[in-house]
Amino acid sequence: MAKTIPERSEIPAEHKWNLASLFKDDAEWERNLTALGGLLPEAEKKKTSFGADEDALLDTLKAYEQYLILEERLGYYAQLRVTEDEGNSAARGMFARFMGLSSQGQAAWSWLSPAIQALGDDFVDRCFSSRKFADYSVFLKKLRRFKPHVLGEAEERLLALQAESAQTAQEAFSVLTNVDLNFGTVETPEGPKPLTQSTFASFMRMQDRDVRKAAYLQFYSHFEAHQNTLGSLYAGSVKLDKYQALVRKYPSARAMALFPDNVSEAVYDNLVSTVNGNLPILHRYYRLRKEILGLDSLRHYDVYVPLVAEVRASHRYEEAVDIVIEALRLLGEEYIRTLRTGLLGGWVDRYENKGKRSGAFSAGTFIGDPYILMNYKDDVLNDLFTIAHEGGHSMHSWHSARNNPFMCYNYTIFEAEVASTFNEQLVFSYLYDHSSDDSEKAFLVATRIDDTLATLFRQTMFAEFEKRAHEIAESGEALTVDVLRKEYRALLEKYFGPEMAFESVSDLEGLRIPHFYNAFYVYKYATGLSASIALSERVLHGGKEERDAYLGFLKSGGSRFPIESLKLAGVDMSTPEPVQAACRRFAEDVEKLAALLHRNRSHRRAAVRPRNCRQLRQLS
């Protein structure tokens, strides 16, 4: 019987998030939206009184902070209401009106950053030393770092006016690949199924190899038909990065991208070189995959099909929360009490309903609970890990908001994935240690291998491609589609190793990665996982000191640059060691999986010893 997806109105209140910590209802949100509009004239007033006077600067910062706090609350509430049911036109209307007013607010306050940059160093230093500016000193220091890269008022205005048109390449790529391209259908044993950007991953996980191959070749044939357009769009995005770096006086586009987090380019290079040095480990995994699948030749469409059948363990949502809490008990009573209360209280929108956004996310704010959207299913073990993952994000937000002023409470993307994947490491250890079933252990290890491969090795490969593409453009060479495909194929061959046989269209993968239009972003996934592995090992095998150091990282919010906050937690991402340790753990998992799978094979052979040739034929 087909499952019926309920309407939003049919979901019990206790299974929905309670947005009252932001606004008690839509009517209160409407009143506050009007109040936000009433704050805009204050921006112009502060501009006329702004000058090299401490009290005037302080009053301006307080007014700006008041505006931003209310804007954040309004924006998150409206966005969360949209995700509950994306077909809800009233919620979409709320969000559209918020975005319109928010744009006006950005314009009204756009004078502030250049004005602060124009202040004299002696005056700003006096402000830094004054206790009156304690809540704003980090904000000011981070903002002032950009002074060498800020242009004159007229030039800044011109760049601001280009902001919308600068999105053209990214938007055209999205429309082409998600809307205009029609990939058709693929024949399966259950009949024809639609092939889309979303369903492609599902096809690649199917056990039927003929279906995987057909879907793969059909999918990339459409990209090949539009390769020149796709190549031109990406080349245009790279050229824009190059232009912005030159205009703002950065040595390169990569240096510009890493500057806001104060991350040295050496961190990026350490990641690439360390992963490159460990590629034989990855190649060993692909040999194992080839062996387990029983293939003469491993193809690109064979690398995502699961090696281990998913464990069909059923956990009601409340039971899954209990498991997660037990796994995280090392983090102390306050952490698990707060998380349990949130997960079982009003933080989480638990189950699927019609129109609800797919997947999962955490949305933390300074005022309000750190909300979690899920589409939880009792019989999907990965959803239990998703509770831990999103709970990690939410507890990071919870600690950050309670230990920092608003102007420096929000942590960076560089740090964001640490708290979430840290929790996953602890849940894995708990489930593995409490399991006596080799099949379940093999599934857990295989899942962690796939996650590490996707996050550490694959994202580093993407990071290496981005670096090379920008180097080509910045050297003055033409970034043609042939050049892009050649560079990407070389990386495919290097990372997948000698076991892999590629198709002529395989290198077109490099033209379909949406993250490439947000340059030098993907490396953060790899560094984040490396940091979380190192910190989880410290906490698992340490004591109160290691736990408190990790909790101190969660509490630091945006008060420090990410390398500094992680170093205080116990991991130094400016060195190659955390990445090297993550690669070692990957190698151990590969050998562990090989042993478990071979042991399971032996057990199955021993259990079905045939008594005669007829029985043997039946079993085969």
Task: Characterise the protein shown here.
It contains 25 helices and 7 strands. A hairpin with a 2-residue loop joins strand 1 and strand 2. The protein has a domain at 170-267 and 298-305 and 458-517. Helix 21 packs across helix 24. The protein starts with 25 loop residues before the first helix and ends with a helix. The strands form 3 sheets. The chain has a 3-stranded mixed sheet with strand order 4-6-5, sandwiched between helices. The chain has a two-stranded antiparallel ribbon with strand order 1-2. The chain has a two-stranded parallel sheet with strand order 3-7. The longest helix is centred in the C-terminal third of the chain and has 37 residues, at 438-474. It is mainly alpha-helical.
Quaternary assembly: single chain
Shape: globular
How many DSSP-defined strands?
7
Query: In which range does the helix fraction lie?
Result: 55-70%
Structural class: mainly alpha
Radius of gyration: 26 Å
Mean pLDDT: 92
Runs in which pLDDT lies below 50 for 5 or more consecutive residues are: 603-620
Strand order of the largest sheet: 4-6-5
Summed up, the helix count is 25
Beta-strand level of the residues, as a percent range?
under 5%
- Sketch the major β-sheet: 3 strands, mixed
Give the N-to-C terminal Cα separation.
32 Å
